[in-house]
C-alpha cells in the first residue's frame, strides 16, 4: 500500500494562481493553524497543465511548487462536468474561459448554454482533486464532488468562475448567490479538503 504521510507543523505552499481558490483554501486551512504562502505570492511560474486527468494536473502543480520551494505544497485541479455534453468541459474547464484578452467566464458560461441547447438534461457536477506533494516527489490525492444542475442566464456575483450557473443539489440558489460560508457547506473543494484534513493534518 502507498505510504500515507501527515503534514508536520510548518509552512505549506498553496500551488494555485486562482484568487477564488486561494480564498477558499486559506479559509479552510485557517482553523488548523497552518502558515500558508501562495505560489502567486512567491512568484512561482505556472506549470503547464499537460495532464488529461484532474489527478495528473493537480500533481503537476503541487510537485512543481514543492520542488521549487523545498516545502510541502497543496494544489487543486477542478472543473465542471455537464451531463448533456458528455462530461465536458471537465479537465478543460479553465481552457473554455481563455480568450486573447485573458479569461472570460461570462463567455465560458454562455458556451455551456449554447452547446447544451436542445437538451433537457440539466445535470452538472463540480469536481475537485487536491494533491499534496513533498519536495522528494511523494504525492497524496483527495477527491471531492458537488452534484447539481446548471442554469442560464448566470445568477449572482459571489464566488468565482462558473459559480453563477451552478445550483447544488438541495438548494435553489446558485453558488454565485451564496455567501462563502454557504458555498463551503456543499462544494467540491471543501469536500476534498475535509478528506485531506482528516488524513494529512496533525491536530
Ligand atoms: O490551476 P490553478 O492555478 O489552480 O487555477 P485555475 O483557475 O487554472 O484552475 P484549474 O486549472 O483547476 O481549472 C479549474 C477551472 O474550473 C473552474 N472552477 C473550479 N472550481 C470552481 C468553483 O468552486 N466555482 C466555480 N468555478 C470553478 C475555475 O474557474 C477554472 O476555470
Ligand atoms: Mg489551471
UniProtKB/TrEMBL annotation:
It holds the Pfam family Ham1p_like. The keyword Protein biosynthesis does not apply. InterPro entries: dITP/XTP_pyrophosphatase (IPR020922), ITPase-like_fam (IPR029001), RdgB/HAM1 (IPR002637). The active site is at residue 77. Homodimer. Its EC number is 3.6.1.66. Binds 1 Mg(2+) ion per subunit. Belongs to the HAM1 NTPase family. Mg(2+) binds at residues 48, 77. This is dITP/XTP pyrophosphatase. GO terms for biological process: nucleotide metabolic process; purine nucleoside triphosphate catabolic process. Keywords: Hydrolase, Magnesium, Metal-binding, Nucleotide metabolism, Nucleotide-binding. It comes from Rhodovarius crocodyli. GO terms for cellular component: cytosol. The keyword Magnesium applies. Pyrophosphatase that catalyzes the hydrolysis of nucleoside triphosphates to their monophosphate derivatives, with a high preference for the non-canonical purine nucleotides XTP (xanthosine triphosphate), dITP (deoxyinosine triphosphate) and ITP. Seems to function as a house-cleaning enzyme that removes non-canonical purine nucleotides from the nucleotide pool, thus preventing their incorporation into DNA/RNA and avoiding chromosomal lesions. The gene is rdgB. It catalyses: XTP + H2O = XMP + diphosphate + H(+); dITP + H2O = dIMP + diphosphate + H(+); ITP + H2O = IMP + diphosphate + H(+).
Amino acid at each position: 500500500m502507498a505510504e500515507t504521510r501527515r503534514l508536520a507543523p510548518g509552512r505549506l505552499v498553496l500551488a494555485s494562481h486562482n484568487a477564488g481558490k486561494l480564498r477558499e483554501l486559506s479559509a479552510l486551512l485557517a482553523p488548523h493553524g497552518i502558515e500558508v504562502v501562495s505560489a502567486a505570492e512567491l512568484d512561482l511560474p505556472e506549470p503547464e497543465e499537460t495532464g488529461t486527468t484532474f489527478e495528473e494536473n493537480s500533481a503537476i502543480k503541487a510537485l512543481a511548487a514543492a520542488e521549487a520551494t523545498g516545502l510541502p505544497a497543496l494544489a487543486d485541479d477542478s472543473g465542471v462536468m455537464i451531463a448533456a455534453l458528455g462530461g465536458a468541459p471537465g479537465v478543460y474547464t479553465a481552457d473554455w474561459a481563455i480568450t486573447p484578452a485573458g479569461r472570460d467566464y461570462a463567455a465560458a458560461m454562455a458556451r455551456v448554454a449554447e452547446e447544451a441547447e436542445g437538451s433537457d438534461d440539466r445535470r452538472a457536477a463540480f469536481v475537485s482533486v487536491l494533491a499534496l506533494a513533498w519536495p522528494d516527489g511523494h504525492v497524496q490525492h483527495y477527491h471531492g464532488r458537488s452534484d447539481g444542475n446548471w442554469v442560464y442566464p448566470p445568477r449572482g456575483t459571489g464566488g468565482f468562475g462558473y459559480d453563477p450557473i451552478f445550483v447544488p443539489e438541495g438548494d435553489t440558489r446558485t453558488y454565485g448567490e451564496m455567501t462563502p460560508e454557504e458555498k463551503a457547506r456543499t462544494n467540491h473543494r471543501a469536500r476534498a479538503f475535509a478528506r485531506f484534513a482528516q488524513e494529512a493534518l496533525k491536530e
